[in-house]
TrEMBL record:
Name of the molecule in the record: Energy transducer TonB
UniProt xrefs under NCBIfam families: tonB_Cterm
Lineage: Bacteria, Pseudomonadati, Pseudomonadota, Gammaproteobacteria, Chromatiales
Chain spans, region Disordered: 1-20
Residue ranges constituting the TonB C-terminal domain according to the UniProt record: 71-165
UniProt similarity note: Belongs to the TonB family.
Source organism: Marichromatium bheemlicum
């Protein structure tokens, strides 16, 4: 009901909030931050004395040439071993998937740790990824320019067990 002179009330219209615009640089920066956080997180049973070690986290998005070169060589070795040792049960059952793996390598190339950060949903694939890294170890010692500032290299990679029974990586 309106009184004379009062204008009829209109229902209030609420504006739909617009999602924020995010560019590729923000996504990559966020991803690098997440990789560093994952690498720094202690894993269950990790020795506290390792906190004095100089660590460096790298991933597929690493652009610094010395780290990117080491990572590329590491990737080639692990992929070669992975394709030779692709899990037979996964082939037979046609199980495919991807997982996020954290691998820590000491300056001498020895394997410090390997752990699944995000599961593929298949224990078979998760265990195969860990086994492949263990089979591929030891790795090349760090070049002098990396060893001068890094004791442990934390590699975070998205593994893909793909159709065609091959091991692949994010690109």
């Amino acid at each position: 009901m309106t009184l004379e002179g009062d204008a009829p009330r209109r229902p209030e219209v609420q504006a739909t909030p617009q999602p924020p615009v995010v560019d590729a640089a923000q996504i990559l920066a966020s991803r690098d931050h997440t990789v560093a956080r994952l690498a720094a997180a202690p894993s269950p049973g990790e020795d506290d004395s390792s906190s004095n070690l100089r660590r460096r986290a790298v991933s597929a998005s690493t652009r610094e040439i010395r780290y990117a070169s080491y990572l590329a060589a590491w990737t080639r070795k692990v992929e070669r071993i992975g394709n030779i040792n692709y899990p037979q049960a996964a082939k037979e059952q046609r199980i495919y998937g991807s997982l996020l793996l954290h691998v820590s390598i000491r300056a001498d190339g020895s394997l410090a740790q390997v752990r699944v950060v995000r599961s593929s949903g298949y224990d078979l694939l998760d265990q195969a990824a860990v086994r492949i890294v263990e089979l591929a170890a030891p790795f090349a010692p760090f070049p002098p320019d990396i060893a001068a500032e890094t004791d442990v290299l934390d590699i975070i990679r998205n593994w893909q067990f793909m159709r065609g029974d091959t091991l692949g990586w994010e690109h």
